[in-house]
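Tokens help. Our protein:
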Amino acid sequence: MKVTVVFPGQGTQYVGMGTVFAGHAHFVSADSATGYNLSKIMLEGPAEDLKLTENTQPAIVTHSLIMFEKLKEILDQKKIGIERVLGHSVGEYSALAAAGVIGFSDAVRAVHHRGKYMQESVPQGKGTMYAILKQSETTIREACEAASNSDESVSPANFNEPNQIVISGDKIACENAIRLMGEKTNDRVKAIELQVSAPFHCALMKPAELKLKAVLDGMTFHSPNVPYIANINAQEYGPETNPETIKENLLKQVCGSVLWTHSIQQLPDSTLVIECGPGKVLAGLIKKINPNLKVISLDSETGFSEVEAL
């Protein structure tokens, strides 16, 4: 038996995350990597501090990789191999650390800066993100293209599941894209504005991408021990991959779309998926993409015992 391990992204954090692992050495390493008491924010809050993107992203990666260490011990004891890894947005850093591409401290430090740079890229109120429900990928892409111009732009940010695609960009361009979708379909478009601190995964994040390049250039990248599927193109990269290609994928991901639906569609129906990190968001999305896939979420009462029972 082999399993696919998936790692969640922003929005899955909560105060008290990782409490069952309190005292783990990775908490000390995370505090050192960020230069402040990240573990205290994770374990005790306040929620307002945890919601800050520069704290949220390293918190999720830290929690995910502490959890992965325990998962790997169990899988090794049972001689169960990992077939591939993938992560949603910032979860891709967790996946790459799990695959041996980057070290734990580098991953945490990188996403701390990534979150900070993303937050700084756009003035408050200029950009936004909307979850668009039950509209086709083609309709959304065409509307975003039509609503964009030299001054304002909008683009698909997250392909979360077939009936939920998130758009991101300038607030006016987003609203125009939604209007154009409605005109094309002659129907009211269900669009939910997300409570986010910045419009992620769109052209407005270009300043963050440029700053992040300097951080990633200072890190050591290795070829993956196990294949991983990249957000930016939903392609699988194996142990023969040039580490520079992986670095480029991470940079492109800052402004590019997260092709989560397309990535999960690569998995055979027989795949056992283990969600490794805070919450159970990915399990819900995966079930909507392919109901045939079995998913175990570790951040639940029965998560690890389900793995023990394999």
The mean pLDDT is 96. The chain is about 45% helix and 15% strand. The CA atoms of residues 175 and 186 lie 16 Å apart. Strands lie at 2-7, 81-87, 127-133, 154-161, 164-170, 190-193, 228-229, 236-237, 272-275, 294-297.
